[in-house]
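Table S5 (text form). Sequence records supplied for joint modeling of the four-component complex.
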Amino acid sequence: MNIGTLAKRSGVPAKTIRYYESVDLIESPARSENGYRVYDEEAVRTLSFIRKSRELGFPLEEVRSLLGLWQNKQRSSGEVRALAQSRIQDIDSRINELQRLRDELGHLVHACHGDHRPECPILEALEPHTERTSK
Amino acid sequence: MNIGTLAKRSGVPAKTIRYYESVDLIESPARSENGYRVYDEEAVRTLSFIRKSRELGFPLEEVRSLLGLWQNKQRSSGEVRALAQSRIQDIDSRINELQRLRDELGHLVHACHGDHRPECPILEALEPHTERTSK
DNA sequence: ATAGAGCTTCCAGTCGCTGGAAGGTCAAGG
DNA sequence: CCTTGACCTTCCAGCGACTGGAAGCTCTAT
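The corresponding C-alpha cell record, covering 270 residues in total, follows.
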C-alpha cells in the first residue's frame, strides 16, 4: 500500500502522515525499489487511532502517550483515564473562558445601537479609563 | 517614555510592542539620540485598547479594524457591532465543539474503571473497528 | 570602575500541520 | 514511442501571535 491509499483508508492526509513520521510519532515504513513508502494493515489501524485521538482533541504529545499505552498490553487503564481526565479539565477551562468572553461581548452588542451613528459602547468599553495623569 | 514604561502602563510586554510595530499594527515611534523608542500618552491609550481587544479574543486583524474604527470619528457603530457579532459566532461554534468533545470524553472516562487492569473503554473507542478486510 | 537594568537587532522556536516548488515514477491511451 | 496525468519524493516556507535568547550598546548608581 502506498501513502495515498493509506491516506484514504485512515482519513489522515498524506502530508500529515509524512509529518508524523518526521516527528517520530509513527515508524518509518519500508521503501519499495522506487523509493515509495510501503505500508501494511497495521499502519491503517495506527493512523486511524491517531486520527480519532486528535479528533478528541488530544495534543500530539498526549497522542504519543496514548499510542504507547494502546500498544502496551500490560498497561493499566488508570493511566489512560488520567490522561483523559486532564484533557477534560483543559477543555472545561477553555469553555469557561470562552463563555466569559461570549457573555461580555453579548452585553456589549446588546448595548450598541449598531446603526449609522458613531456612538458605540463597544469601543467605549475597549477604551482605557481616561484619568488625568501628570504629564 | 521608554518602551519599558509603556509596557508597564499599558500591560503589553515590550517584546509584544516591538512585534506590533513590526507588523504595522502601531506606528513606529520617534527615537531618542541613543536609538531608544520614545512614546507619548497616546501610545499608552492605543496599547491599552489593543490589549483589551485581544483579551476579548479579537484576532489581530480584527484589532486592526477596530483600531481604525476607534480612531475614525465618522465611523458607524454598525460596523463595530458587526465585528463583535461575528466574533460571538466564532466563540459559540468553538464552545459547541468543545462541549461535544467534553461530553464524549466524559462518557469514556465514566465507562473506564481506571485501575491497574488493562481493560480500557477509552482505548477501545479510539481503536478502529476491526473488520475482516481482504488481505 | 563596575554591576545591573534597560535598550537595540536579529534569529529561532512554539503547534500541527499545509502549500508549493522541483523533480522522479508509473500506467494508460494515441 | 511519446505524452499526459496521477502518483510519489524531498525540502523550504508560512500560518497566529507571540516568546526566548544571543550579542551588544547605554544609562544609572554605588
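Note: The radius of gyration of chain B is 25 Å.
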